[in-house]
Design brief:
With about 260 residues, the chain is of the alpha/beta class. It is built from 7 helices and 11 strands.
């Protein structure tokens, strides 16, 4: 009896690699894991430790925005240890079931996968905000239509650039204060948090200005927990949104 395909879905961001097994009905979220890879040049030992105990998949689908070196390491490991070719999602010419007003030749594959994950899981209109190395926000309205979005530096990049450009300022390890700062560290924390919150709130207001209902805000990425309390209201944190998007991509390309 031929066993059903076992898909390993992999999301390689600029800072983290996340993965989960998924059939074409659901993700096996109990198996979702992640590792930090930023500033690491050789991931072989970490991948070997974490993946060598996994059930060998029949297919490996990958969304990667971290460059060719990591792609080569993942591809080589998968081929050597599981005897399958890792399938990297490359060509972005159209969004399955979604009409986009954005130039898809310029959109990162992670944003594309997040939109696919958003559609069908949340009511529209919605804004997905990926709080990673860069912070991206993309708007999806009824249709479904992708209107486009916004890109800005993430919290780490903002802290680093502030320190580099204004050397007298202290290093802020954590952003956990969003009020009126009573000291320099609080003031920096508040400035960074409110910069992101202001961007999101302005986008939401623009969507409402088009005659749409208030959009659902969905946060993903490693720093989602920092910004969610500042936004207030009905905010969802969905750390596996890109993985859901990869799943939808596979369903569309192989099973539809």
């Amino acid at each position: 009896m031929t066993r059903a395909p076992l898909h390993l879905l992999v999301d390689i961001g600029n800072t983290r690699i996340k993965w989960s097994f998924g059939d074409m009905d659901r993700l096996t979220l109990d198996g979702s894991q992640a590792l930090l890879h930023r500033d690491e040049t050789d991931l072989t030992a970490q991948i070997n430790q974490l993946w060598s105990t996994l059930q060998p998949p029949t297919q490996v689908w990958v969304s990667n925005v971290a460059g060719s070196e990591i792609e080569n390491q993942i591809s080589n490991w998968v081929q050597l240890n599981w005897g399958v070719k890792a399938l990297f999602i490359k060509e972005i010419s159209q969004l399955p079931r979604i009409t986009s007003q954005y130039s898809l030749g310029t959109i990162g594959v992670d944003r594309w996968m997040a939109l696919l994950g958003l559609y069908g899981r949340y009511s529209l209109p919605a804004i997905v905000i990926d709080c990673g190395t860069a912070i991206t926000a993309d708007i999806l309205v009824e249709g479904p239509i992708h209107l486009g979005g916004v890109i800005m530096p993430g919290f780490v990049l903002m802290r680093e650039s502030l320190k580099q450009g204004a050397k007298a300022l202290p290093v802020v390890a954590d952003c956990n204060f969003d009020g009126i700062g009573g000291n320099t560290i609080q003031a920096i924390s508040s400035g960074l948090l409110n910069a992101v919150a202001g961007m999101v709130q302005r986008l939401a207001a623009q969507v409402e200005g088009m005659g749409c209902p208030p959009p659902q805000l969905v946060l993903s990425g490693g720093d989602a927990g920092l910004i969610a309390p500042v936004l207030g209201g009905q905010v969802e944190i969905d750390p596996d949104l890109v993985l859901y998007g990869i799943q939808q991509y596979v369903i569309h390309n192989q099973y539809s």
